[in-house]
Task: structure prediction
Amino acid sequence: MHEMSIMQSLFKILVEKAKAAKAQRIRSVTLRIGRLSGIEADLLSTAFQVVSKETMAEGAELKVVTSPFQIKCKQCNALFKSSDRLLFECPECGSKDVQVEPDDDLMVENMEVEIASSDL
Ligand SMILES: [Zn+2]
Result:
């Protein structure tokens, strides 16, 4: 399972970040995946539950959002976003001669942590 190895390496980074922020617990994590990445949100969630067991992130909520397609118009070079695979038309010049730009596979968009109040 591809998503499991992705999550294992990502999880290490998350925990390091949380520890660096002196967090006691990771409350929620938001990930953004590219539409062309082939990563499945469901499998990512399952992988997160497995790797977070008995860690500071156990029980944390994982949110996965999918990036819209990033499209580039070949006629006028305008960049635009579309979440619809079939409706690619340049909003600038109306051309349908467009191409899908490569996207990031996976990004950490946000992480909420709990920090001990005695550290204040
Ligand atoms: Zn255009």
Summary: The longest helix spans residues 2-20. Residues 68-102 form one domain.
